[in-house]
Amino acid sequence: MEPIYPMLWFDGQAEEAASFYVSIFPDSRIVQVSRYGEAGPGVAGSVMLVDFELMGRRIAALNGGPEFRFSEAVSLVVPCASQAEVDEYWDKLVEGGEPSYCGWLKDRFGFSWQVVPVELDRMMLDPDPEKARRVTEAMLKVQGKLDLASLRAAFEGA
Fold first, then answer.
1. Helix or strand or coil: residue 56?
2. N or C: which end of the chain has fewer CB within 10 A?
3. What pTM, to 2 d.p., does this model score?
4. Where in the chain is the domain with CATH 3.30.720.100?
């Protein structure tokens, strides 16, 4: 069996979105672009499907039309090793989009991403419930990009 992969539904922006995403992440590339034929339902010759890889993971982007829109119910998580990585990925992905709460953002295509330091998971799962509570409360108050130093301070009770 082939691996399961996500397919993102766009309204004419699949190729632009895939190109944007692969420009941000290392080990990423456009694999194939398929076009609508005479049978439609899109205009013959227009982009139907873009298969691409983000950091070696397959994703497909479909130009399916205006019937469906993205929501926060589905997002991709970008686990970052440092604040510098959080800053880099956040700044690139949010350009033309909009920030949200707790490290979430919508990119310029309306798709949701979570840009989070991997250290946050460790802190939130700490066996000391007081430390985990403090960092969770601090994270929930963030409007926009997460700041690892502030999260560490909350975790330590500073």
1. coil
2. N
3. 0.93
4. 7-63
